[in-house]
């Protein structure tokens, strides 16, 4: 699959607006500011694909991107956890994303993006727990790995990957850096596996 073929397909404000549930897709999730947009942009070699550093509190949307070579899609889920997000917006997020995650038949995997300096926040842990319960393949991207020295980055990866593997074999982690374009091929290979299996 050529990830640089990604093209914007449509946005959905609620579950009923999602494109038809055929083929296969992988969704990207993560705390706001974790580096999710940047990771999607480097993967697709399109600096404008997912908008980076979005305004807190703006309308939350699921964004769908189509890939060539088959009925494949990438999905950008709204970032989670801005301090400014009020309770109602938080509930909206949980309702819409919860429904998407629960109902979507074509969803074959989730990439959960974490800032390597702040991994496994409360929200992250809930997403991991959900993947364990639903047997959803999940790849944790420890991004901004360029912010740590090689040794500490490797240690964080080993610790988190071991924790995940002991929870369920369909969970795994990897290092990633959008700045240095590191981990892009490894991510592509994981995505290929989920989308085409
Ligand atoms: P999102 O809210 O999760 O989509 O996060 P963004 O992709 O907008 O990134 C948040 C901030 O982190 C931006 O200032 C990015 O430039 C920065 N950033 C993202 N990825 C990396 C990375 O791999 N390395 C470094 N050094 N900075 C990054």
TrEMBL record:
One of its GO terms (molecular function) is metal ion binding. InterPro entries: G_ENGB_dom, GTP-bd, GTP-bd_ribosome_bio_YsxC, P-loop_NTPase. CDD domains: YihA_EngB. Keywords: Cell cycle, Cell division, GTP-binding, Magnesium, Metal-binding, Nucleotide-binding, Septation. GO terms for biological process: division septum assembly. Its cofactor is Mg(2+). SUPFAM superfamilies: P-loop containing nucleoside triphosphate hydrolases (SSF52540). Residues 22-197 form the EngB-type G domain. Necessary for normal cell division and for the maintenance of normal septation. Belongs to the TRAFAC class TrmE-Era-EngA-EngB-Septin-like GTPase superfamily. EngB GTPase family. This is Probable GTP-binding protein EngB. It comes from Reinekea marinisedimentorum. The gene is engB.
């Amino acid at each position: 699959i050529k990830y640089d073929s990604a093209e914007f397909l449509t946005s959905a404000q609620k579950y009923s607006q999602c494109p038809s549930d055929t083929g296969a897709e992988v969704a990207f999730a993560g705390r706001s500011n974790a580096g999710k947009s940047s990771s999607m942009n480097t993967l697709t070699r399109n600096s404008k694909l997912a908008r980076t550093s979005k305004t807190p509190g703006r309308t939350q949307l699921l964004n769908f991107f189509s890939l060539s070579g088959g009925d494949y899609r990438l999905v950008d889920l709204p970032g989670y956890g801005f301090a400014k997000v009020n309770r109602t917006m938080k509930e909206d997020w949980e309702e819409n994303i919860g429904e998407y995650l629960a109902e979507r038949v074509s969803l074959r995997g989730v990439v959960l993006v974490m800032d390597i300096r702040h991994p496994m926040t409360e929200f992250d842990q809930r997403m991991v727990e959900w993947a364990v319960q639903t047997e959803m393949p999940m790849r944790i991207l420890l991004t901004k790995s360029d912010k740590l020295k090689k040794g500490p980055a490797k240690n964080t990866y080993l610790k988190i990957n071991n924790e995940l593997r002991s929870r369920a074999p369909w969970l795994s982690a990897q290092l990633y850096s959008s700045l240095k374009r590191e981990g892009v091929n490894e991510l592509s290979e994981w995505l290929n596996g989920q989308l085409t299996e």
